[in-house]
Protein backbone atom coordinates (compact mmCIF):
# COMPACT_ATOMS: atom_id res chain seq x y z
CA UNK A 1 0.00 0.00 0.00
CA UNK A 2 1.47 3.34 -1.06
CA UNK A 3 2.27 5.81 1.66
CA UNK A 4 0.24 9.01 1.64
CA UNK A 5 2.35 12.07 0.90
CA UNK A 6 1.52 15.36 2.55
CA UNK A 7 2.99 18.79 2.17
CA UNK A 8 3.99 20.29 5.50
CA UNK A 9 4.42 24.06 5.70
CA UNK A 10 6.99 25.36 8.14
CA UNK A 11 4.93 28.48 8.73
CA UNK A 12 1.34 28.35 10.00
CA UNK A 13 0.30 31.49 8.11
CA UNK A 14 1.77 30.58 4.68
CA UNK A 15 -1.17 28.33 3.59
CA UNK A 16 -3.61 31.13 4.42
CA UNK A 17 -1.56 33.60 2.38
CA UNK A 18 -1.56 31.24 -0.60
CA UNK A 19 -5.34 30.80 -0.62
CA UNK A 20 -6.08 34.44 0.27
CA UNK A 21 -6.42 35.66 -3.37
CA UNK A 22 -8.98 32.96 -4.17
CA UNK A 23 -10.88 33.61 -0.94
CA UNK A 24 -11.02 37.33 -1.75
CA UNK A 25 -12.30 36.67 -5.29
CA UNK A 26 -14.99 34.26 -4.05
CA UNK A 27 -16.03 36.62 -1.27
CA UNK A 28 -16.30 39.66 -3.53
CA UNK A 29 -17.97 38.01 -6.50
CA UNK A 30 -20.08 35.31 -4.82
CA UNK A 31 -20.63 35.61 -1.07
CA UNK A 32 -21.16 39.38 -1.04
CA UNK A 33 -23.66 39.41 -3.95
CA UNK A 34 -25.43 36.38 -2.44
CA UNK A 35 -25.72 38.15 0.90
CA UNK A 36 -27.06 41.26 -0.84
CA UNK A 37 -29.65 39.19 -2.68
CA UNK A 38 -30.77 37.51 0.54
CA UNK A 39 -31.14 40.88 2.23
CA UNK A 40 -33.06 42.45 -0.66
CA UNK A 41 -35.35 39.42 -0.99
CA UNK A 42 -37.01 40.28 2.33
CA UNK A 43 -37.31 43.97 1.51
CA UNK A 44 -39.45 46.08 -0.77
CA UNK A 45 -38.06 49.27 -2.30
CA UNK A 46 -39.13 51.80 -4.89
CA UNK A 47 -37.66 51.94 -8.39
CA UNK A 48 -34.87 54.27 -7.28
CA UNK A 49 -34.05 52.48 -4.02
CA UNK A 50 -34.69 55.58 -1.95
CA UNK A 51 -37.22 53.97 0.40
CA UNK A 52 -36.79 50.45 1.76
CA UNK A 53 -39.36 48.50 3.77
CA UNK A 54 -38.93 45.12 5.44
CA UNK A 55 -41.68 42.77 4.17
CA UNK A 56 -40.43 39.39 5.37
CA UNK A 57 -41.43 36.52 3.09
CA UNK A 58 -44.03 38.48 1.12
CA UNK A 59 -41.82 38.58 -1.98
CA UNK A 60 -41.59 34.79 -1.98
CA UNK A 61 -45.34 34.41 -1.46
CA UNK A 62 -45.99 36.70 -4.39
CA UNK A 63 -43.80 34.52 -6.59
CA UNK A 64 -45.92 31.41 -5.98
CA UNK A 65 -49.04 33.43 -6.86
CA UNK A 66 -47.49 34.61 -10.14
CA UNK A 67 -48.58 32.30 -12.96
CA UNK A 68 -45.88 33.58 -15.33
CA UNK A 69 -43.17 32.81 -12.78
CA UNK A 70 -44.45 29.27 -12.27
CA UNK A 71 -44.58 28.81 -16.05
CA UNK A 72 -40.92 29.84 -16.28
CA UNK A 73 -40.03 26.75 -14.20
CA UNK A 74 -41.35 24.49 -16.95
CA UNK A 75 -39.64 26.60 -19.62
CA UNK A 76 -36.33 26.41 -17.77
CA UNK A 77 -36.63 22.66 -17.19
CA UNK A 78 -37.28 21.95 -20.88
CA UNK A 79 -34.58 24.35 -22.02
CA UNK A 80 -31.86 23.11 -19.63
CA UNK A 81 -32.61 19.44 -20.35
CA UNK A 82 -32.40 19.99 -24.11
CA UNK A 83 -29.21 22.04 -23.85
CA UNK A 84 -27.46 19.51 -21.59
CA UNK A 85 -28.53 16.36 -23.46
CA UNK A 86 -28.03 17.69 -26.99
CA UNK A 87 -24.83 19.52 -26.11
CA UNK A 88 -23.18 16.47 -24.53
CA UNK A 89 -24.40 14.06 -27.23
CA UNK A 90 -23.30 16.15 -30.20
CA UNK A 91 -19.95 17.12 -28.70
CA UNK A 92 -19.20 13.50 -27.79
CA UNK A 93 -19.96 12.42 -31.35
CA UNK A 94 -17.70 15.16 -32.74
CA UNK A 95 -14.93 14.21 -30.31
CA UNK A 96 -15.12 10.57 -31.45
CA UNK A 97 -14.79 11.65 -35.08
CA UNK A 98 -11.94 14.02 -34.25
CA UNK A 99 -10.11 11.29 -32.37
CA UNK A 100 -10.16 9.12 -35.50
CA UNK A 101 -9.09 11.82 -37.95
CA UNK A 102 -5.50 11.36 -39.13
CA UNK A 103 -5.01 13.92 -41.89
CA UNK A 104 -5.99 17.52 -41.23
CA UNK A 105 -6.91 16.82 -37.62
CA UNK A 106 -5.51 20.18 -36.46
CA UNK A 107 -7.74 22.12 -38.86
CA UNK A 108 -10.77 20.02 -37.96
CA UNK A 109 -10.27 20.58 -34.23
CA UNK A 110 -9.58 24.30 -34.68
CA UNK A 111 -12.91 24.83 -36.44
CA UNK A 112 -14.70 23.02 -33.61
CA UNK A 113 -12.99 25.14 -30.95
CA UNK A 114 -13.73 28.52 -32.55
CA UNK A 115 -17.35 28.91 -31.32
CA UNK A 116 -16.16 29.08 -27.71
CA UNK A 117 -14.49 32.43 -28.48
CA UNK A 118 -17.86 33.94 -29.47
CA UNK A 119 -19.64 35.95 -26.79
CA UNK A 120 -23.10 34.61 -25.79
CA UNK A 121 -24.84 37.81 -26.96
CA UNK A 122 -23.09 37.57 -30.33
CA UNK A 123 -24.10 33.91 -30.60
CA UNK A 124 -27.73 34.87 -29.98
CA UNK A 125 -27.66 37.62 -32.62
CA UNK A 126 -25.88 35.34 -35.10
CA UNK A 127 -28.50 32.60 -34.84
CA UNK A 128 -31.31 35.16 -34.87
CA UNK A 129 -30.04 36.54 -38.17
CA UNK A 130 -29.70 33.07 -39.69
CA UNK A 131 -33.27 32.17 -38.70
CA UNK A 132 -34.88 35.60 -39.14
CA UNK A 133 -38.18 35.14 -41.03
CA UNK A 134 -37.50 37.88 -43.60
CA UNK A 135 -33.70 37.88 -44.16
CA UNK A 136 -32.40 34.67 -42.60
CA UNK A 137 -30.60 32.33 -44.98
CA UNK A 138 -31.74 29.26 -43.03
CA UNK A 139 -35.32 30.54 -42.95
CA UNK A 140 -35.13 30.98 -46.72
CA UNK A 141 -34.11 27.34 -47.10
CA UNK A 142 -36.91 26.21 -44.77
CA UNK A 143 -39.49 28.16 -46.79
CA UNK A 144 -38.09 26.66 -49.99
CA UNK A 145 -38.95 23.25 -48.56
CA UNK A 146 -42.55 24.37 -48.07
CA UNK A 147 -42.42 24.85 -44.30
CA UNK A 148 -43.03 27.98 -42.24
CA UNK A 149 -40.52 29.27 -39.70
CA UNK A 150 -41.10 32.26 -37.45
CA UNK A 151 -39.42 32.29 -34.02
CA UNK A 152 -40.89 35.74 -33.40
CA UNK A 153 -44.45 34.40 -33.35
CA UNK A 154 -44.19 30.64 -32.81
CA UNK A 155 -43.20 29.53 -29.29
CA UNK A 156 -41.78 26.18 -30.38
CA UNK A 157 -39.66 27.83 -33.05
CA UNK A 158 -38.36 30.36 -30.53
CA UNK A 159 -37.44 27.62 -28.07
CA UNK A 160 -35.69 25.67 -30.81
CA UNK A 161 -33.74 28.80 -31.77
CA UNK A 162 -32.33 29.51 -28.30
CA UNK A 163 -31.61 25.81 -27.70
CA UNK A 164 -29.61 25.59 -30.94
CA UNK A 165 -27.72 28.79 -30.13
CA UNK A 166 -26.96 27.68 -26.57
CA UNK A 167 -25.84 24.19 -27.66
CA UNK A 168 -23.63 25.61 -30.41
CA UNK A 169 -22.01 28.06 -28.01
CA UNK A 170 -21.11 25.29 -25.51
CA UNK A 171 -20.07 22.63 -28.04
CA UNK A 172 -16.41 23.65 -28.08
CA UNK A 173 -16.06 23.43 -24.31
CA UNK A 174 -17.61 19.96 -24.19
CA UNK A 175 -15.66 18.86 -27.24
CA UNK A 176 -12.29 19.74 -25.69
CA UNK A 177 -12.94 17.71 -22.55
CA UNK A 178 -14.36 14.71 -24.41
CA UNK A 179 -11.45 14.71 -26.85
CA UNK A 180 -8.94 14.90 -24.00
CA UNK A 181 -10.75 12.04 -22.26
CA UNK A 182 -10.71 9.88 -25.40
CA UNK A 183 -7.03 10.51 -25.98
CA UNK A 184 -6.22 9.49 -22.40
CA UNK A 185 -7.70 6.02 -22.93
CA UNK A 186 -4.90 3.52 -23.66
CA UNK A 187 -4.98 2.49 -27.31
CA UNK A 188 -3.98 -1.03 -26.26
CA UNK A 189 -7.46 -1.57 -24.78
CA UNK A 190 -9.14 -0.61 -28.05
CA UNK A 191 -6.74 -2.74 -30.09
CA UNK A 192 -7.26 -5.75 -27.81
CA UNK A 193 -11.04 -5.46 -28.09
CA UNK A 194 -10.73 -5.12 -31.86
CA UNK A 195 -8.61 -8.26 -32.05
CA UNK A 196 -11.28 -10.08 -30.02
CA UNK A 197 -13.83 -9.19 -32.69
CA UNK A 198 -15.61 -6.31 -30.97
CA UNK A 199 -17.12 -3.89 -33.47
CA UNK A 200 -16.66 -0.10 -33.13
CA UNK A 201 -20.08 0.44 -31.55
CA UNK A 202 -19.49 -2.29 -28.95
CA UNK A 203 -15.96 -1.02 -28.24
CA UNK A 204 -17.39 2.41 -27.55
CA UNK A 205 -20.13 1.27 -25.13
CA UNK A 206 -18.06 -1.32 -23.26
CA UNK A 207 -14.66 0.42 -23.10
CA UNK A 208 -14.59 4.08 -24.11
CA UNK A 209 -17.85 5.38 -22.67
CA UNK A 210 -17.39 3.81 -19.19
CA UNK A 211 -13.88 5.26 -19.01
CA UNK A 212 -15.32 8.65 -20.03
CA UNK A 213 -17.81 8.63 -17.15
CA UNK A 214 -15.80 11.06 -14.94
CA UNK A 215 -15.57 13.52 -17.84
CA UNK A 216 -19.25 13.06 -18.68
CA UNK A 217 -20.30 13.64 -15.08
CA UNK A 218 -18.17 16.78 -14.82
CA UNK A 219 -19.60 18.16 -18.08
CA UNK A 220 -23.15 17.31 -16.98
CA UNK A 221 -22.76 19.49 -13.89
CA UNK A 222 -21.13 22.29 -15.90
CA UNK A 223 -23.80 22.20 -18.63
CA UNK A 224 -26.67 22.33 -16.14
CA UNK A 225 -25.14 25.40 -14.49
CA UNK A 226 -24.47 26.87 -17.95
CA UNK A 227 -28.09 26.37 -19.03
CA UNK A 228 -29.41 28.01 -15.86
CA UNK A 229 -27.08 31.03 -15.75
CA UNK A 230 -24.82 31.63 -18.76
CA UNK A 231 -27.55 31.50 -21.41
CA UNK A 232 -29.15 34.77 -20.31
CA UNK A 233 -27.40 36.80 -23.03
CA UNK A 234 -28.50 34.34 -25.72
CA UNK A 235 -32.14 34.57 -24.69
CA UNK A 236 -31.98 38.35 -24.38
CA UNK A 237 -30.37 38.80 -27.80
CA UNK A 238 -32.43 36.23 -29.69
CA UNK A 239 -35.98 36.30 -28.31
CA UNK A 240 -36.06 38.63 -25.27
CA UNK A 241 -38.16 35.99 -23.56
CA UNK A 242 -40.79 36.01 -26.31
CA UNK A 243 -43.05 35.42 -27.99
CA UNK A 244 -44.99 36.53 -24.95
CA UNK A 245 -43.01 34.94 -22.13
CA UNK A 246 -42.66 31.49 -23.64
CA UNK A 247 -38.84 31.55 -23.65
CA UNK A 248 -38.41 33.53 -20.42
CA UNK A 249 -36.21 31.18 -18.43
CA UNK A 250 -35.67 31.83 -14.74
CA UNK A 251 -32.45 33.82 -15.08
CA UNK A 252 -34.00 36.06 -17.75
CA UNK A 253 -37.07 36.68 -15.59
CA UNK A 254 -34.76 37.77 -12.73
CA UNK A 255 -33.30 40.40 -15.07
CA UNK A 256 -36.64 41.46 -16.57
CA UNK A 257 -38.45 41.91 -13.26
CA UNK A 258 -35.49 43.66 -11.66
CA UNK A 259 -34.33 45.99 -14.44
CA UNK A 260 -37.41 46.34 -16.64
CA UNK A 261 -40.32 46.05 -14.22
CA UNK A 262 -38.20 47.61 -11.42
CA UNK A 263 -39.43 45.07 -8.86
CA UNK A 264 -36.15 44.85 -6.96
CA UNK A 265 -37.47 42.81 -4.05
CA UNK A 266 -39.23 40.30 -6.27
CA UNK A 267 -36.18 39.99 -8.51
CA UNK A 268 -33.94 39.36 -5.49
CA UNK A 269 -36.33 36.68 -4.25
CA UNK A 270 -36.21 35.01 -7.67
CA UNK A 271 -32.41 35.03 -7.64
CA UNK A 272 -32.43 33.34 -4.22
CA UNK A 273 -34.82 30.66 -5.47
CA UNK A 274 -32.70 30.15 -8.58
CA UNK A 275 -29.55 29.83 -6.51
CA UNK A 276 -31.21 27.24 -4.23
CA UNK A 277 -32.41 25.24 -7.26
CA UNK A 278 -28.97 25.12 -8.88
CA UNK A 279 -27.27 24.16 -5.61
CA UNK A 280 -29.90 21.45 -5.01
CA UNK A 281 -29.47 20.05 -8.53
CA UNK A 282 -25.70 19.98 -8.10
CA UNK A 283 -26.00 18.17 -4.77
CA UNK A 284 -28.41 15.63 -6.28
CA UNK A 285 -26.02 14.98 -9.16
CA UNK A 286 -23.10 14.43 -6.80
CA UNK A 287 -25.24 12.35 -4.43
CA UNK A 288 -26.86 9.98 -6.94
CA UNK A 289 -25.34 10.34 -10.41
CA UNK A 290 -21.73 10.19 -9.22
CA UNK A 291 -22.33 6.69 -7.83
CA UNK A 292 -22.35 5.40 -11.42
CA UNK A 293 -19.07 7.08 -12.28
CA UNK A 294 -16.03 4.83 -12.68
CA UNK A 295 -12.88 6.59 -11.54
Describe the fold and architecture:
The chain is mainly alpha-helical. It has helices at 14-41, 58-64, 67-100, 105-113, 120-130, 137-144, 155-183, 187-195, 200-211, 213-230, 232-238, 250-260, 264-288; strands spanning 43-45, 52-54. The protein has a two-stranded antiparallel sheet. The longest helix is centred in the first third of the chain and has 34 residues, at 67-100. The two termini are 19 Å apart. The model has no long low-confidence stretch (mean pLDDT 87).
Summarize the structure.
The chain is 71% helix and 2% strand. The protein is an all-alpha fold and 295 residues long. InterPro entries: MetI-like (IPR000515), MetI-like_sf (IPR035906), UgpAE/MalFG_permease (IPR050809).
Question: What tags apply to this protein structure?
Answer:
single chain, 295 residues, mainly alpha, two-stranded antiparallel sheet, 13 helices, globular, transmembrane helix, transmembrane
Amino acid sequence: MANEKRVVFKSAWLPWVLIAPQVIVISVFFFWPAAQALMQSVQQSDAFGTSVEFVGLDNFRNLWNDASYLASFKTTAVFSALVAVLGLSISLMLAIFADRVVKGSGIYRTFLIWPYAVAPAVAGVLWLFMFAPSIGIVSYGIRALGANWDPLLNSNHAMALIVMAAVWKQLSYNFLFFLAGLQSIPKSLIEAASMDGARPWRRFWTIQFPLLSPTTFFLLVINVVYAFFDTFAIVDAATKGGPGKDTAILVYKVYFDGFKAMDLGGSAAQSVVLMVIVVALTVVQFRFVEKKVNY
